[in-house]
Specification:
This is Signaling peptide TAXIMIN 1. By secondary structure, the protein is mainly alpha-helical. The protein has one domain. It is built from three helices and no strands. α1 runs antiparallel to α2 and α1 runs antiparallel to α3.
Length: 77
């Protein structure tokens, strides 16, 4: 598996898979929080805390990608 910057790190990719799976579970929680936050923001758009909740949920959804990128950047070829 080659990264976008041209470095090939197949070992890092394989080592990051279990952690990416755990991050995927966290992102599922993020999806649920995001849906609830969107519904709350539709009901009461004046609540600023809902906006923060939705932004946090988006970061949780992106967690598997961040985990894979971090692992592949830590282990050299």
């Amino acid at each position: 598996m080659c990264c976008g910057d041209g470095d090939c790190r197949p070992l890092a990719f394989l080592l990051s898979l279990p952690f990416a799976f755990l991050a995927l579970l966290v992102s599922l929680v993020g999806i649920i929080i995001w849906i609830v936050g969107i519904l709350l923001s539709i009901i009461c758009p004046c609540c600023l805390c809902v906006t923060v909740l939705v932004e946090m949920a988006l970061q949780l959804i992106k967690a598997p990608i961040h985990v894979m990128e971090w692992f592949t950047s830590q282990i050299p070829c």
